[in-house]
Design goal:
2 domains; 7 helices; single chain; 5-stranded mixed sheet; Dihydrodipicolinate Reductase, domain 2; DapB_N; 12 strands; alpha/beta; 7-stranded parallel sheet; Rossmann fold; binds the ligand O=C(O)C1=N[C@H](C(=O)O)CCC1; binds nicotinamide-adenine-dinucleotide
Length: 265
């Protein structure tokens, strides 16, 4: 069976990689892309794509769904638009595969309910890279034994959301194995606001944004006389593509929402 795929954000750093990934796969067909400004009618008219990429470009999601009837909708856009896109996909009977980060807990809850109600698979993956997923799982395991944890996530300086989706997900997995408690000195004072980072149940998250970075995270576990550091680095967006391909195939078998690839790998 050929899976009909639509991609939102085709000219972005992730979206353009995803376009090539789908075009290269024999069991997938890229039927359309969604851009937020009309630059051209077809992907082949964009300088960054080859001449044989004869794929229609839409700026309206509803008409894309109605005209092209994709099976799967891949979103790699912005935190501002992703929730609306995901909901619209589900309401049009299209299975979402979402790489865009920045969902609120309430939005995740609502989309989970909608996906279950419609019996339509959805994958929301804060990180598609297998190494990052392993880092998150190992962090969850380590937290049961070393519950004093600080997460340092480091990304390129074009990133819109902080903390990263990966850091949020890591913290959520750790919370399942760690009793909440305040870390550091009970009387510590921040002389500059934010110096100790974001606080999740006493665990700290620090977000670094610098040019030159792609996507990196360290999870630090401190114990008596010891430090365990778990680190993952994505040096290029190609690290995410096997996860994108896997998700497009897997979502066809699901009938509810999966948040995080660690649940289905
Ligand atoms: N899950 C993962 O493994 C993973 C990996 C990398 C990035 N991301 C996430 O993917 C998202 C995109 O990242 P990026 O680095 O490619 O960003 P980017 O800024 O390079 O690309 C985003 C693209 O979306 C387009 N866009 C914006 N609003 C749109 C709309 N309403 N409709 C259609 N297109 C729209 C922009 O024109 C841009 O081309 C971010 O949320 C990022 O956090 C996730
Ligand atoms: O480049 C980004 O932006 C990334 N975002 C994801 C996150 O927020 O965790 C995954 C890694 C890259």
């Amino acid at each position: 069976m050929t899976i009909r795929v639509a991609i939102a954000g085709p000219r972005g750093k992730m979206g353009s990689e995803a376009v090539h990934t789908v075009m290269k796969n024999d069991n997938m067909e890229l039927v359309a892309v969604l851009d937020h400004r009309e630059i051209a009618d077809s992907l082949e008219d964009y300088a960054e794509f080859p001449n044989n990429y004869c794929i229609p470009v839409y700026t309206d999601l509803e008409s894309l769904f109605k005209t092209e009837r994709p099976d799967v909708f891949v979103d790699l856009t912005t935190p501002e638009t992703v929730y609306k896109h995901t909901k619209e996909a589900l309401l049009n009977g299209v299975r979402p595969v979402i790489g865009t980060t920045g969902f609120t807990d309430e939005q995740l809850e609502e989309l989970t309910e909608l996906s279950t109600e419609l019996k339509l698979g959805t994958i929301i993956a804060p990180n598609f890279a297998i190494g990052a997923i392993l880092m998150m799982k190992f962090s969850q395991m380590a937290a049961a034994y070393l519950p004093d944890v600080e997460i340092i996530e480091m990304h390129h300086d074009r990133k819109l959301d902080a903390p990263s989706g990966t850091a949020n997900k890591t913290a959520q997995l750790i919370q399942e194995n760690r009793r909440g408690h305040k870390q550091g000195h009970p009387d510590e004072v921040e002389t500059i606001e934010g110096a100790r980072g974001a606080d999740i149940d006493g665990m700290r998250i620090h977000s670094v944004r610098l040019p030159g970075l792609v996507a990196h995270q360290q999870v630090l576990f401190g114990g008596e006389g010891q430090l365990l550091t778990l680190r993952h680095d994505s040096f290029s967006r190609s690290s995410f593509m096997s996860g994108v391909k896997f998700s497009i195939e897997k979502v066809m078998e699901l009938d509810d929402l999966v948040y995080g690839l660690e649940n289905i790998l």
